[in-house]
Amino acid sequence: MPPGTRPAVPPATDPVSGTDAVSGTDPGRGTDAASGDRRLALLMHAAFFLLLGASLARFLMRHPGEARTPWIIALSVFLAVLHLLGPVLGSRPTPRRLAWLGVLVAVWTLLVVLAPSFAWCAVPLFYTGLRILPPRAAMALVCLLTVFVVAAQLRLATGFDPILVLAPPAVAAAATAVFVQMQRQSVRQRELAAQQRGLIDDLLRTRRELAATERRAGTLAERQRLSMEIHDTLAQSLSSQRMLLQAADRSWDADPATSRQHVRTAAGIAERGLAEARRFVHDLAPADLAGEGGLEAALRALAERETAQAQGALTVRCHVEGTPSAPLPDRVQSALLRIAQGALANVFEHAGATAAALTLTHLGDRVVLDIADNGRGFTPSGDARRPAGGVRGHGLPAMRARVGQLGGTLTVESAPGEGAVLSAAVPLASAGPPDPAAPRTAPPAPPVPPVPPVPEERP
């Protein structure tokens, strides 16, 4: 996975409780309103058939063998069948649904006229009307059914009873208030569920956008890292081979032995470049760090290799100061080795130096790498990243980027004719805080040999 990237986006719900990971609410709670409506509808259906059966039984017990009995039984069965057809037609106020409700109320009214005992079946009809009709029409239907209930109760009574006049309107008002409140809660729950779904969708979309942004940032960081790796390994190797082959071509006729030595050196550099490329493809780690000895052994091997490659024109020495309290992290070792490779390549190609020194200093809370040379020097400039009209100049910016990624600093001290010293200081996170009472000493300057005359041309 490229640096700077994160794993794939996790789900927005808790896999254990099923609740929303952000708000802590259940995304499926919006379905609770619908399930509550279904349970209430089933309850009202059961109440209707219970009241219808009780009314029919009461009529048959009180009025056995009357002429209207077959009609009462037939109308009761027809009313039950009509009520069973209600869920098939749905709950929306379609013309078919309204016609069904009208027929249902008409049959019930006829039954109440023939047998007042069926008046209490009006309570489930209240619920049916409130569900299907608009508010005003539903209220009108409730009032009409209440009037029929009161009239039926007065017919059954032997005399005037105030409770028979006041109880049905009170029951109708209470049932209507309960149904209306439940409908409002159902609508509110559906609205809240829709808002939660919208928030969850926004959260998922934001997470996807954040993940895409982080992937792009990781890709750019990985590209920068790869460019630095290629510059410090393959590009430097190819540049050295080109210089050696050009020198061999110039002296091919005049000095064949020197030319063959240049070619052999270029072949050795090509072999090391091939090993570096294979290692680079395998795990992007420097090949010199693959063996034992760590960074110190790799720096010494680098110094010996650069000295042999220069064939007497440049001598590179390596010094190690102090002892690390713990092994250096792989990232720190790799970065410092790459910085040393890039700095020595610049010394070899541009400084005209005859001596250079690598100094690795362990200071407990940080590690410092100094690269010093006795070359012609230059005037450091923070904005001079690339020579005008040239394609070189990536070395110092790449070194600064490497050190910056580790939280360190890179300083360059130089002046024309006085050589140059490049210092890379990297803090170590594992090191404890420095002792405030301990004296602070700067790392010793690397030894630089006296500056000999600079040759006009060097192979």
Automatic annotation (TrEMBL):
The chain crosses the membrane at residues 40-59, 71-89, 101-126, 138-157, 163-180. Its EC number is 2.7.13.3. Its cofactor is [4Fe-4S] cluster. The keyword tRNA-binding does not apply. It comes from the Bacteria. GO terms for cellular component: cytoplasm; membrane. It is found in: Cytoplasm. Residues 1-33, 426-459 are annotated as: Disordered. It catalyses: ATP + protein L-histidine = ADP + protein N-phospho-L-histidine. InterPro entries: HATPase_C_sf, HATPase_dom, His_kinase_dom, Sensor_HK_TwoCompSys, Sig_transdc_His_kin-like_C, Sig_transdc_His_kin_sub3_dim/P, Sig_transdc_His_kinase_ChrS. Residues 1-13, 433-459 have a biased composition (Pro residues). It holds the Pfam family HATPase_c. Residues 225-430 form the Histidine kinase domain. Its main location: cytoplasm. GO terms for molecular function: 4 iron, 4 sulfur cluster binding; metal ion binding; phosphorelay sensor kinase activity; protein dimerization activity. Keywords: 4Fe-4S, Cytoplasm, Iron, Iron-sulfur, Kinase, Membrane, Metal-binding, Transferase, Transmembrane, Transmembrane helix, Two-component regulatory system. Member of the two-component regulatory system NreB/NreC involved in the control of dissimilatory nitrate/nitrite reduction in response to oxygen. NreB functions as a direct oxygen sensor histidine kinase which is autophosphorylated, in the absence of oxygen, probably at the conserved histidine residue, and transfers its phosphate group probably to a conserved aspartate residue of NreC. NreB/NreC activates the expression of the nitrate (narGHJI) and nitrite (nir) reductase operons, as well as the putative nitrate transporter gene narT. This is Oxygen sensor histidine kinase NreB. It comes from Streptomyces nitrosporeus.
